[in-house]
Queue: 2 jobs
Job 1
Amino acid sequence: MLKRMGRELDTTGAMLPIGQATFPAPFKSELEYSCSARGTWNIVHTGFLVPEAHEIFACAAGCLRGVVLTAAEMNAQDRFSTIEIRENNVLEGDMEDLLIDGVTDILGKLPYKPRAVLLYTSCIHHFIGCDLKLCYARLRERFPDIDFTDCYMNPIMRKSGLTPDQLMRRGLYALLKPRELHPKKLNMIGNNLATDKTCELYTIAERAGFSVTEIHDCKDYDAYQSMAEACMNLCFNPVGKAGGEALEQRLGQKLLYLPLSYDYDEITRILGEYAAALGTETPDFTGETALCEEALSHAKTVIGDAPVVIDYTATMRPLSLAKLLLTHGFNVTAIYADSFTGEDRGDFAWLQANHPDLPVYATVQVKMRMLPRETSEKTLAIGQKAAYFTSSPYFVNTVECGGFYGFTGIRQMLLLMEEAFVHEKDTRKLIQIKGLGCGCV
Amino acid sequence: MKQTARIISTYTADVSGVNSALFELGGMTVMHDASGCNSTYNTHDEPRWYDFDSMVFLSGLSEMEAIMGDDDKLIDDIVSAANQFHPKFIAVAGTPIPMMIGTDLRAVASVVEKRTGIPAFGFSTNGMHTYVQGASAALEAIADRFVTEQRPKTAQLSVNLLGVTPLDFSVNGSAEHLKTALEARGITVVSSWAMGDTLETLQNASSAHVNLVVSRSGIGAAKVLRERFGIPYVTGRPYGKFTDKLAKSIQKAAESGENLCPQIQRENAKIVVIGEGVSAMSLANAISCDPVIHSHARFIAATEFAECYLDREDRIARDEDELLPLLGGAQVIIADPLYQPICPKTAKFVGLGHEGFSGRIFRDEIPDLTESLAWLAERL
């Protein structure tokens, strides 16, 4: 009935040796395939990080389907409502009325009063020229004790300007209202997963007398609003940076962009800048690097020469991680990524120069649907997509670096790799769960 | 207000219906969309996605392509993929933005067909209708294009099953049991549209005596086969004892050439079934003639359905606001579990998972009621 045809295909167009790849987008834009790995968060998951907020999506039924069921799988339907756009709305141009009356109707029916509403509009509003400013103004008039913010489900913009993911992470903090800034308060922003509190960003802040708040720490809306008091925002996720820039402009909170890295020198430099910004001395990281070397050595004894494959969903810096592992004798055999961020540029050049044959596989290229998903030997996959494309049950089940950062982040990643290499996982089951770490079942 | 949902889900959209209907037939389906439709389809609407490499892809429409009306890129990309994979056919299905900018997907398909020599279809889906509309259009196109030859009728009374997708039949054995239930009553199944059979098998459809429309997704193909080969169709899904009634109607339709929609007399219904039109209607009929349940049921079709199939107490309703008044007075409500939050507390709720509504969430709990309603009777 249905048979695999991948063995008849070659990898042309879906794979390039990194030495032949162009930066930042090595592959041609063509038809796309979506694999079964679902651990990355979507805009529904991220929006629910705002405590006591209600999400309302306004779009066509086909677009609602995915977000409605995301909320259902989180068992969060009571914080989620929809307004369905139909053909007549497009033809009659009553989009503003539909939005205003729809939100009003929903808020009137809710059994509780949300402190805030995240209102998601869609590609249709964008293309039809819906007057969103008018809509928000009317809603704020009607519901003066509810805060509204604009969120977007407009994937058609993913190739121009800020992506929907960047917009969502910016929108996450758009509800913060100006407050007097506290000189000893910091925020950590831009992450879906909570940052590991043992990392250097926390320990340095503590030593300098600063407190650090992340949205995950906020149990209620008032606690969330207190994030407006921080004098600085820390961000290490590239897609969170736009949110930090917006806060800097709007609330005067200085943005400290401290990109994730797996390179000792880069981490040391970044943490040095961080310490200086907090007015404290740069710590001596000699001990930290020694601990990382120990951890690398230990992981190497466990993993040996087994192939290691890495995908871009596991960490924001897959090439930096690949470089670290290759320089410590690990057998990195493939990278799965459709494009790279600006932060990857240096590592990309290094890999081109030192490991030009390292294969880079696209994850959305249509041939990836058909090419054999198997490996001939025990393979450690770092990330769900890497696990899927190799069918490896030995995989690090994480997204967005798991919230681990800095030298401690390197050690945590190595621990995860060791654990993954020793203990088999149910790849099929685990990677299909949406929004890893968000509570989805 | 209509069009709002405070809490309930929404049905699989037309574009996913196209994908689902064509999934096993060896074609290549392209959703003309920016993104989102693909992950929604393969996460929530397609239980076969992980295990079977059907060619369902996304065009990745960008803002600039939409503004500039750049259909050439879409066509070039489809042709490029088709030249690599050599699918048996190509389908292009639209989403909201192609509808708004007036993309002529039939013209796109026509150009693709000329350039590849592969049969191609364009579907003007827009994500604003339910899957039954998309699946029906897709199966209609398959019938129209590939079932062109009158083949000898089978010696034994036979049917094609039209409208079989996991969205209504899940992957719990129901699709297979449709065949066994009919075969047990002396009726051969020529083809199943479209789970479990190949495109080549579907091309034998003209050898069947009758078409059995087991979900509304099968109506488009039924009409084509009626018009082209004079094959009558019976509307209804085999459930429990109702299958006997269906079997008699199939026999009668074969003899008379009439299209039939058998009904059990239903009155003073205390049970309400909500769901896809044909399934909900058939289940209401099956409950009403079940020797154990001893109660009558009415139904609410929550997807596109035909008024002519409604009995006095049956309705078509889609929105929360339309549904709520129809649930008053019900003693029992049988529906997908995601309907429960809007059901009156005074009614007993029996959750009957439906992939077309709740996707994969309750997949492991969806019962196969084809042979018997015992599972349901235990819960009433």
Job 2
Amino acid sequence: MGNQSKHGKSTLDYEKIVETEDFKALVKRKKTFSRPYVVFFFAAYFALPLLTGYTKILETPAIGSMNYTWIYAFSMFIMVWVFTSIYMNKAKHFDNDVDKIIEKNVLK
Amino acid sequence: MSLISYVIFFSVIVLTLYITYWAAKQTTTASDFYTAGGSLTGWQNGMAIAGDYLSAASFLGIAGAISLNGFDGFYYSVGWLTAYLVVLFLIAEPLRNLGKFTMADMIGARFGAKKVRGAAALNTITIVMFYMLAQLVGAGALIKLLFGIEYWIAVLIVGTMMLIYVLFGGMTATSWVQIIKAVLLMAGTIIISFLVLMKFNFNFIGMFDAMKTATPHGEAFLNSGVVYKDTIGLISVLIALVLGTAGLPHILMRFFTVKDAKTARSSVIYSVWIIGIFYVLTIFLGFGAAKFVGADAIIAENAAGNMAAPMLAGVLGGDALESFVAAVAFATILAVVAGLVLSGASAIAHDIYGQIFKSGKVTEKEQVNAARWASIAIGVFSILLALGSEKLNVAFLVSLAFCVAASANVPTILLTIYWKRFNTTGAVASMLTGLIVALVLVAISPSVMNPVEGATLITGNPIFPYANPAIVSVPAGFLAAWIGTLVGAKRIEKDEITYAEVRFKAETGYKELGN
């Protein structure tokens, strides 16, 4: 197994590659894409115990006896499905960018 | 138990053994053993991820918790599903891109020092042991109840089965057992949910109306707060649920069983639908059990409510459906313990033996042999522990496993990928602090200390107020990472690669030849 090469001399100049405009642009695009989603789902998730623990607003009936606590929880499910789909679609674009960077900087 | 029960149980056993026989013929290399040679397709791995995700805790545990505690039980469904986004957005791809077989590989890809790998392996083994002990004790109780056989025989049956799958079939067999179990579990859950909905005349909202009067809790059943009266305690549980999943070794291992990051991603889309639909259906299981079985009967069978789902199946569909559901629960436990044995064995054989003692210089044959011996060691040790733990209330072990995963593994995983200044000292400090703080706080929490004699391990007033210490132990893990990084900033560690290399590999999945 080639574990030696992992920590020995690298065949690539990584310091140089990560400074290329292509790579910096990729990292930035990935960050600007995922950051809002990450912030949103954590916020939405932890808002639930805060709302149920410190307020009574979610206990208001929404549809029949189903109150907003359940509606909130169901919205979290929809959020997970929607965010997953968005991520999948976006990731395909990033794959293409990655292929280009590898081709340009590594395979040459 | 009727004849049909035996038929269903033995079908599950025979089918899984046949798969193991078939898988054994394809398991020759270390990569075959740990990751099925990366040969699973997107949907196969998706089903297997769902299988790993939907453990007995999800199936038996959530159904019981909702039936007894209403919405408070549903927090588990919400937490575990949201955890999926943490794994997907923050961890899955970099982990897959940097690692090879284990989580420690990924951290070791940046920090090559043996102490880093050792700490990561120690965490993995700790989590696996707690989780497996809880599953084995649960399985023993379940089989004892269903077949009326002795607890120790039941534990031995489950223990032997899991070892057979892993020893002979490695990850290929384990994955296929997971896939079959996922199909059975979904089928069982959909059938029960349909029958419950039929009982409520297909009126989803009407079901909520009925629940207002169906349980001893009255209207409070539909609100948060039946169990979680303290908001800080609730938040602590939710932290462990949402972050813990992202640090569970047997879940993370699933991202190595496919050939590339793209396939890993496509498996995610399959599993998120299966898992999400399953968690929605837990409402029917829980509400149905509360209404048609009743809290008293559920508690009489098992105080934690673990038998709610099989009992509900019995009420709705008679003996045949109850046996089917019990067989599903049995398959669920078998599949999950097999996955756990495999991740524990990988930590011992690949990380500790292969990378630490042998510095990576082991032949393919030595690796596979070491992995088999490690599986036997982990399996036998956990069976012995389980045999002595029949009377132990093991529910806290699962939350402990999640808590250790969230506090000891997740900070290091995240910082290895995303923090430039993070270093070897920081990683070791974070992993050990997270582990120790979580263990100590649980040991002095209400899960272990209770003034009522015999209720828990130690009789006495709990020193730490929350059953789940994640709200303290997770920040402790991050804090230790920061302090450790400051302390170790001047130290030169060998085998530490530059952050530039980590960044590039994590983002692109590029691997140097020979790796």
